[in-house]
Design brief:
Bound molecules: nicotinamide-adenine-dinucleotide
CATH superfamily of the largest domain: Aldehyde Dehydrogenase, Chain A, domain 1
Strand order of the largest sheet: 14-15-16-13-12-18-19
Helix content: 25-40%
Low-confidence stretches: 1-5
Number of strands: 22
Strand content: 15-25%
Largest sheet: 7 strands, mixed
Mean pLDDT: 96
Number of domains: 2
Amino acid sequence: MTTSTGPSGLLVDGRWRAGIDPLEVVDKYSGDVAGVVARASPADAQDAIAGAYRATAQPLEPDERARVLLGVADGLEDRTDRIVADYVAETGFTVAEARNELRRAVAIYRLSAQEATRLAGEQVPLGATPGGAHRLAFTTREPVGVVVAISPFNAPLSTVAHKIGPGIAAGNAVVLKPAEATPLSACHAVEAFLEAGLPPGYLQLLCAPGELVGPALLGDDRVRFYTFTGSTAVGRRISAGAGLARTHLELGSNSVSIVADDARIDEVGRVVATAGFRKAGQVCTSVQRILVDRRRFDDLTSVLAEEVAGLRAGDPRGPDTDLGPLISSVEADRAAGWVAEAGARHRVGGERLGGGLMAPTLLADPDAESRVLTDEIFAPVVSVVPVGDLDEAIDIVNAGRYGLQAGVFTQDLDRAFHAARSLRVGGVMINDTSSYHADAMPYGGVKDSGHGVEGPRYAVEDMTDPRIVVLNLRRPEREESL
Ligand code: NAD
C-alpha cells in the first residue's frame, strides 16, 4: 500500500506479485503520491481466474467461511487508523465519511458470515404433481464457482465488502478488480482476508485500469458470475462480455426525492444537506433532483439555500470540513460546466474552488433538458424543480432512463403507497431521501441503473445455484413376523 510497507496490490494464487509497473495512487486533495501498488497485466488477470478456478476444487465449508468473514471484520476494526488515513488520501472524502464507510464494511462482513451459516435449500412438494408420487425432493445451494468483482472509486470499502463478503459466504472464489483511483482500501480488505486464514486462491486481487484488464476478465467461461458496480456505460460492456455468466449490475442514477405539499420542509432541508452533499455528491443515490409541489417550492428553496450556504468544502482532514474534492479536477470542471449551462432561476454556489474542489451548489428550477437533470452529475449539486402534483413527479421519474432509488416526503399514507407502487425504481424511501441505504436491505436498480440486488442475504442467494435432489422411495418389503 504505502511505498515503504505493505503488500504490492497484486495477489495471484496466494502470492504477492511485482506487476508490470507501479501504479501511483494520488492524494485527491494534496496531489501527493499517497501509495503505490503493482499494476496487473492481462496475463495476471488470466492467472488470477485460473487460480480461482483451481481453488474451488477444494470446497470451503460454511463454518470456515463464517470464521474467516468474522475474522476479516475484526481485522478491519483493528487497523482502523491506517485504513482511515489511506481512504481519506485516495478518495478525498472526509475523515467522518471514512469512519462511517469502514463501520458499514465491518457490518457487511459480519452479515455475510451469518448468511454463510444459514445457506440452505428447501423441500419441494412433488407429491401433488403427476409423476411425483413416492418422491422426496429438496434443493441444496451450491457455489457458482468463480466470481469476478469490479468496484467503483466512490465506495471503496463498502462496495468491495458487498461483493467479496457474499461471494465468499456462498463458497465461491473471487477475483477482485477495484477502481484504479482508489485501490488502497481494497488492499486492506484483502490483507484482512489473508490474516483471517482464507485458503490461497479463494481471493485474487488485480489493481489496474479497467480497460487494461477488463477484456481478459470478460468472456472467460470459467467465470460464472460478474458483480459490477460503476457507470452505466461500463456496465453495458460488462453485460456484453459476460456471456452466459450471471451478472449483478449496480449502475448510475440521477436520483429523485419527491416533496409533497404536506411534507415537513425543515426536515427535508436537514436531510438533503447531508444526503445531497456527502462524499461531495459522489454517491449513486445522492439527492440530485428534488421534485417539489409548486406550492412549497419557495419554502423549500429558501430552507435549502441556507443549509447549502452553511456547508464547507475543503481539506477532507479538517475537522470542520463537510465535503472534500471530487475524484479529479477534470470531473470538477465537467460538473461546473453543466451548472453553468443549466439556466437555473436561482443558484447558490456552483463555482470551482482550487484543485478538485467545487462549492456546494443548489440550483432552483433549471431548464428541463439541462444535463444537471437528465444525466448523472456525480458532484455536490442539487436541483429543485417545481411540479404540479405527486403524479406529475412520478411521471417525470418514470420517463427518465435511470431507476435506482427514490425518496418521497409526505404525511399522507395513501400518497406514500401510491408513490411506492407507481415509481419504476429499485427502492422507494418514504420520508427519507433517495440516498437512504441500510446494508441488510435488498439494494439495486432497474432500467439504466442495472439489475440484481445486493445486501448479503440476497447476493449470497444469487451467487449460488440451486441443485435439486429427488429420492425415489419405495415401500420396503414387509418382513415376516417371527
Ligand atoms: P466506472 O464505470 O468508470 O468504473 C467502475 C469500475 O469499472 C472500475 O473498477 C473500472 O476500472 C472498471 N472498468 C472500467 N472500464 C472497464 C472495462 N472496459 N472492463 C472492465 N472493467 C472496467 O465508474 P466509477 O467512476 O469508478 O464510479 C462511479 C459510477 O459508479 C457512477 O456512475 C455511480 O453511479 C456508479 N455507482 C453505482 C452504485 C450502485 O449501487 N448503483 C454504487 C456506487 C457507484
